[in-house]
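Anyone opening a protein record will find just a pair of labelled lines. A complete record is shown below as an example:
=====
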Amino acid sequence: MYQKTVLPNGMRIITERLPHVRSVTLGAWFEVGSRQEELEEWGLSHFVEHMMFKGTKTFSARQIAELMDQRGGQLNAFTEKEQTCYYFKVLDEHFSTAAELLQDMLLNSLFLPEDVEKEKNVVLEELRMYEDSPEDFVHDLFSDVLWPEDPLGRNILGSEETIRGFSPQRVRSYVAKHYTADRLVVACVGNVHHAQVVDTFAQGLADLPRGSRRPALQPDYTAGSCIFADKDIEQVHLCLGAPAISCSDERKYALQVLDTMIGGGVSSLLFQELREELGLVYSTYSFNSLYSDTGFYGVYAGFHPQNWGRVWEVLTDLLGTLGQRITEEMVERAKQQLRSGLVLSLESTSARMSRLAKGEIYEGGPLPPEGVLRRLEAVDYGQVLALAEEIYNPRRWSWAAVGPRHLVREDIQCRKIC
């Protein structure tokens, strides 16, 4: 059972007690990510995430790491387009230590000049690592192709120029502006009582101020946009797709079913045709990312440059004829696959914690698993077909590719589908 408390400063605390486990997963989610950044701040949300681990007035960076290792706990964080999350997973007996350390990091991180300079180099290495991973890099390019003039289209890490320009004062100003109580959701799952979580954070974060928000603008999209990044590698890595629905759209359950059928497993259309039947790829899948007011779908394939034209023919035919390919039996199989995945995820306190936070941020409260299962079960064949015809339309595609352009035999420009 979920319990929720809203503190006077606007901070939301939501918990789920699981008395049969010995662990607790605790997360602090701030509704700020790369989408909230100005151009000169590009990458600052992610950089702040790094800096939170570099020492406070109470603990050094080494002491923070040793505290968790000594207790066998996990401490980590991640930055997304619309949120930044700091989370701990510990034995229930160490909840108080994790909560104290989390609050200390959020309130008392020092952001010392020497640490900022050192961490710039770390983040630049992370950026280079992603650029050296073509499968990761092509996904960033794909977002940029979809929304080239909008923060939602930028990668989360930033650019070398913006990262080098970060200063302790800029970090402190960004935290003061965005790390406010009304943007904070504390989510906790495990063998801990709601009242204990509320008491702990009401005391520690009572003085965290409210802030102000500026709503994000929905980005513009131009169909047929494309980019090919020339890299001397063995494969072409291709992403294609288009904007889709937002996470508040009830059709997201139909989209999950559709995505599962297209590229969500070894029985999916993409895997069976591109890999099993034609042997054109080793890796292929579909994906979608949904945000507060928009979203996108995409498909990925990695293949030899000489197969560029053949892969495009298969993808165009497959996605352009979904209405003839999808059967009621496929819809039911995908629903069962999703149902099993959801039920299995409930065995993880970390996955449950994320469900609590995301549900609160996007829907004003988490939908119980039974409710999700009911909505998945209610998805019917007609809904799936209607959504497929609306969004999986080749005339709406844009695409990004990474690979050895000179080895692609076909005319790349002809793939500008409009």
Summary: DSSP finds 16 helices and eleven strands in the chain. The chain has two domains: 2-204, 226-415. The mean pLDDT is 95.
